[in-house]
Amino acid sequence: MSPAAQKKSDDYQVLLVVLQEMLGVVIGDENHARLRQKLEPIMAEHGYGSYNKLAEALREEPSGDLRSSVLQSITTHSSQWFTYPEISTLLQEYVLPGIINQNKKDYRIWIVGCGRGQMAYSMAMATEEFRQQHSMTCNVKFVATDLSEYEISQAAAGRYDASMLTGLPLAYKQKYMSAHNDQWEIDQALRSTVRFKVCNLLESFNNMGRFDLIICPDVMVYFSNDVKSEILSEFAELLDPSGMLIVGASEPVVPFCKKFELVNHAAGIFYRQIP
Fold first, then answer.
1. Which of 11, 75, 3, 77 is nearest to 43 (CA)?
2. Longest C-alpha distance within the chain, in Å?
3. What is the Cα–Cα distance from 168 to 156, expressed in whole angstroms?
4. What spatial distance separates the first Cα and last Cα of the chain, rounded to whole Å?
5. The pLDDT value given to residue 28
6. With the C-alpha atoms ordered 192, 195, 196, 197, is the resulting torsion angle positive or negative?
7. CB burial of residue 121 (10 Å; 0-12, 13-18, 19+)
8. Cα 213 to the center of its chain, rounded Å
9. What is the pLDDT of residue 188?
10. Is there a domain that residue 248 lies in?
11. Bigger pLDDT: 207 vs 41
12. Sheet harboring 260-265: ordered strands across?
């Protein structure tokens, strides 16, 4: 390895230590290339010519915009629609039929890390389709959160360029969106079922209210074990008795929080709060 390459590698290792110390973020070997790709725009925006410069800035500013930008970049989801087919399957084949069977009147779902809203609106569309097909009367409401105020404001507006509709079925676009100039806008009726809100999992979020289901895919994998335990315990406190938690396929929950049990259902894998 050349001296320049060794210096870059050393700087990167310093950044990894700072990310764990300041943000509770731990990056597995499989995510290093993705992390570098996500951090490049932030480094370019702020003029940091090396990972070490970014690490120094994070140490000097333990809270504020830079910290939020870095955490947002690391934990952000794909901006495509229906990104998680396994979650859609669980929703349509287990969660929504269960709502009918339990004769529930109200059901609240929290989607963590919503970005510009594609995932939240995808879930809302799928739920509305199920409602119409099965004459479901339950009032299903979504709360979708993200770190970025800008992303949340964009999501709440519900307007997307045609280039941002990747993965959205044509039938759904025609049924739940309308064209305005060069953009497509979510219809008001569907938009009213989703409330967007800024939320940082590293800060207390016990004011979020009670939920029947929390969907948090591909977020926990980036946090240290201690931080995971704290977040999961708070999730458990917000869930109604026997509430559900859905995380990413590579994100174990039980080792870090004894308040959940793994459920391996034919429709998919999820965790249930232990009453």
1. 11
2. 67
3. 18
4. 55
5. 75
6. positive
7. buried
8. 13
9. 96
10. yes
11. 207
12. 194-198, 139-146, 106-112, 211-216, 239-247, 268-273, 260-265
Q: Strand 268-273 relative to strand 177-180: parallel, antiparallel, unpaired?
A: unpaired
Strand partners, 160: 184
The predicted pLDDT at position 78 comes to: 61
Rounded Cα–Cα distance for residues 130 and 54 (Å): 47
* Token pair 């290792």: residue: 13
The 10s digit of each residue's pLDDT in 64-111 is 778 888 887 777 666 679 888 999 999 999 999 999 888 889 999 999
- Whether 107 is covered by a domain: the verdict is yes
Q: Are residues 158 and 242 in the same domain?
A: yes
CB atoms within 10 A of CB 196: 24
Tell me if 101 sits within 8 A of 133, measured CB to CB.
no
Residue 63's pLDDT band (cuts 50, 70, 90)? low
What residue numbers bound the domain in which 130 lies?
85-273
The token pair at 58 is 């994070």
Six-digit token pair at 68? 């939020």
C-alpha atoms less than 13 angstroms from C-alpha of 112 in its C-beta half-sphere: 23
- Report the C-alpha gap between 205 and 208 in whole angstroms: 6
- For residue 98, give the CATH number of its domain: 3.40.50.150
- Closest among 173, 179, 223 to 71, alpha carbons compared: 223
Token reading at 212: 């029947």
- What tokens appear for 183 in the block? 């953009």
Task: Give the count of domains, the chain.
Answer: 2
Query: Residue 177's beta-bridge partner residues?
Result: 186
One domain for residues 147 and 253: yes
Give per-residue pLDDT as tens, 108-153.
Answer: 999 999 989 999 999 999 999 999 999 999 999 999 999 888 889 9
DSSP state at residue 105 = S
Question: Residue 115 CB: number of other CB atoms within 10 A?
Answer: 24
